[in-house]
Amino acid sequence: MGSCVVLILLAWNLVRLWSTAAAVAMSVVAALIPPVAAIVGNWGEPRGPDDHD
Question: Which of 18, 40, 46, 51 lies at a C-alpha separation of 20 to 30 Å from 12?
């Protein structure tokens, strides 16, 4: 989460002065990190008997 906040702050306070496209790209990456992390964190086989459907 901290990396997302840092990316947003850098994008819109520093990088946008040189490249708006780069700032938008950084914002998109920051927006995609949490959902990807949740998917990866929940990836895998069920571990216990209560985890099966």
Answer: 40
HSE (CB half, 13 Å, CA atoms) of 1?
Answer: 1
Q: How many helices (H) and strands (E) does the chain have?
A: 2, 0
Q: Which tens digit of pLDDT belongs to each residue from 1-53?
A: 899 999 999 999 999 999 999 999 999 999 999 999 999 988 877 676 666 65
Burial of 8 (0-12, 13-18, 19+ CB in 10 A): middle
Residue 35 domain-assigned? yes
CB 35 within 8 A of CB 43: no
pTM above 0.90, yes or no: no
Domain that holds residue 12: 2-39
